[in-house]
Prior knowledge:
Layout: H1 3-22, E1 25-30, E2 33-37, E3 43-46, E4 52-55, H2 63-73, E5 78-82, H3 88-91, H4 94-99, E6 120-124, H5 125-132, E7 149-151, E8 155-160, E9 163-170, E10 178-183, E11 188-192, H6 211-224, E12 236-239, H7 247-269, H8 274-280, H9 284-290, H10 298-312
Parallel strand pairs: 4-5, 5-6, 6-7, 11-12
Antiparallel strand pairs: 1-2, 2-3, 3-4, 8-9, 9-10, 10-11
Amino acid sequence: xxxxxxxxxxxxxxxxxxxxxxxxxxxxxxxxxxxxxxxxxxxxxxxxxxxxxxxxxxxxxxxxxxxxxxxxxxxxxxxxxxxxxxxxxxxxxxxxxxxxxxxxxxxxxxxxxxxxxxxxxxxxxxxxxxxxxxxxxxxxxxxxxxxxxxxxxxxxxxxxxxxxxxxxxxxxxxxxxxxxxxxxxxxxxxxxxxxxxxxxxxxxxxxxxxxxxxxxxxxxxxxxxxxxxxxxxxxxxxxxxxxxxxxxxxxxxxxxxxxxxxxxxxxxxxxxxxxxxxxxxxxxxxxxxxxxxxxxxxxxxxxxxxxxxxxxxx
Length: 314
């Protein structure tokens, strides 16, 4: 085959792969909850007789497809959007999805939202601070995408479609504004990027994230989740990226993070530099499972763990 034909074939395959990444796949999770996968991350959707609740809105380029997928699940209006972090791949469609929804007024005499009729965007207060920017500076996102309803406590709750939805703030995990959504009747936990079974975890110190916070979040999932028969099934876990999982997969992931952390800590205690720790490959027995699937490379993950632990030392 000629070089020109090989180049053309490679370009065709690349375009096909890009198109496949942009395709959305709707998957039933359990109960009233579905997962819309694709375009870089997962969106969780709860449907029922009252309204639609959406967790994370992907990127702006895919919003039309996301709304079309939601419409196939329910003709009811979108009432609430829950945001798990301020990351653009979780909040990019906020403004359009909110504008396509309908906010339900709870008070006839006074409502702090005034005439706003868009679906509410709910997040921890730290997400609003990240998205709106410090006073007097240019905000990184348009105002229409900002959370319209925030909470600052360790948890918050909604009751929609005959189901309680717990919002759980996990401080200093992937970022400082992470929220997990627990659909209690359906027995589904939407974790955001605290749990990503397709790669090593990401945590951003500049956004308030930490390795210990990731472990706190994973342990909180394990406190809530109950495994089914033979440790499979039971509580369903919708991660920020990747496949629908169960308690056992979260436990295995938590153990991996703990083991790698302890290995890196031991190497630091032995006086090794970052380059020496990376050369020792403390994650090597996990690289076949978690490397090359969209998350950090093993080298990048070890570097993040090393810097996190070094920063935690007195």
